[in-house]
Structure to design on (162 residues):
């Protein structure tokens, strides 16, 4: 049921991605890795200086699904090009989690990070690494909603850009 409940949101995001002008938004990136509050993830994001992406945890019990927004800090000497450093903020929730322990848990995680390109013929593959903090909001029936600030949140993932 949860899949059909949120399929409209995914369809709207797909439509938004397909309507973006190709000249201004020309980078599609897929990545896989691990992170604190991301779990073992796969991510897909699209954009140039501002990127929007989806994240899905495949390994942990929570199976969080996230929406992430990235701002690539421009290069110092070439301000028209996005640089290797970025600021991001993600919101992930337990859409597909199973069991009572995963019910209504949300993570908000702002981070700062850097992309490292691997040397090669294409220069399209590399590693993204970021660090920040997280806000965890979850429900506990006798006490209601609880909000906790967690001082560290990080992730690292291998990417490929198309």
């Amino acid at each position: 049921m949860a899949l059909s409940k949120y399929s409209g949101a995914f369809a709207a995001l797909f439509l938004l991605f397909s309507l973006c002008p190709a000249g201004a938004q020309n980078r599609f990136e897929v990545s896989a890795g691990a992170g604190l509050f991301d779990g073992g993830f796969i991510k897909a994001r699209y954009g140039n200086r501002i990127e929007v992406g989806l994240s899905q945890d495949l390994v942990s019990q929570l199976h969080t699904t996230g929406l992430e927004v990235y701002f690539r800090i421009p290069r110092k000497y070439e301000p028209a090009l996005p640089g290797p450093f970025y600021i991001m903020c993600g919101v992930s929730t337990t859409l597909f989690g199973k069991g009572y322990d995963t019910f209504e848990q949300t993570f908000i995680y702002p981070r700062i990070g850097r992309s490292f390109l691997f040397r090669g013929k294409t220069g399209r593959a590399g590693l993204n690494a970021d660090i920040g903090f997280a806000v965890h909001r979850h429900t506990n029936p006798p006490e209601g909603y609880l909000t906790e600030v967690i001082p560290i949140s990080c992730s690292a993932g291998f990417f490929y850009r198309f």
The chain has one helix and eight strands. Strands lie at 28-35, 39-47, 50-57, 65-74, 82-93, 105-117, 125-140, 144-161. The CA atoms of residues 54 and 67 lie 5 Å apart.
